[in-house]
């Protein structure tokens, strides 16, 4: 005969189930926020920043051209400030060109760098959306089964057959109603 399990409390399973539900309820919105941040960053880089630095480059190139024109006029009048204005405008144009190159580079590299991370995040999201609710349901059922098992009291004495079970069997299997019916028919 198999030994019965000795279940005294399912509080640890209930605490784990509660912690799992809390984890899922906190992790799911966090993952959704991270996914949204990745998408926003891509759009920001590919549209907003690229447009911004293309516009800045155009403005700075115009400013450089104006400074060169002013320098040319100033050479005729011997004004040293125009040379500094040209150098400043040239540095600003170089900065804008560098920023624009960086934006174009990262726009091309973004998907390659982010794709492995996004795949891992999607796996975790699948786990949270599909597998964890199933785990919570399984834990709930397990807790119910264990609670029901713990509430069942085993009869003491003859190893499983209680007096009510043996008394009921002998009364119906004995000579009661079946013999009387057979005797009356004979």
Descriptive account of the structure:
The protein has one domain. The model is unreliable at 157-186 (pLDDT under 50). 5% of the residues are buried. The protein has four helices and no strands. Helix 1 runs antiparallel to helix 2. The chain is an all-alpha fold and 186 residues long. It has helices at residues 11-77, 81-151, 163-173, 177-185.
- Unreliable stretches: 157-186
Provide the β-strand percentage band: under 5%
Structural class, please? mainly alpha
Give the N-terminus to C-terminus distance in angstroms.
Answer: 45 Å
Shape: rod-shaped
Domain module tally: 1
Q: What is the typical, i.e. mean, pLDDT?
A: 77
Q: State the helicity in percent bands.
A: over 70%
Number of helices: 4
Largest sheet: none
**Nearest-angstrom radius of gyration?**
41 Å
Helix and strand sequence: HHHH
Based on DSSP secondary structure assignment, what is the total number of beta strands? 0
What are the main properties of this structure?
single chain; 186 residues; mainly alpha; 4 helices; 85% helix; disordered C terminus
SSE map:
Layout: H1 11-77, H2 81-151, H3 163-173, H4 177-185
A few lines on this structure:
This protein is 85% helix and 0% strand.
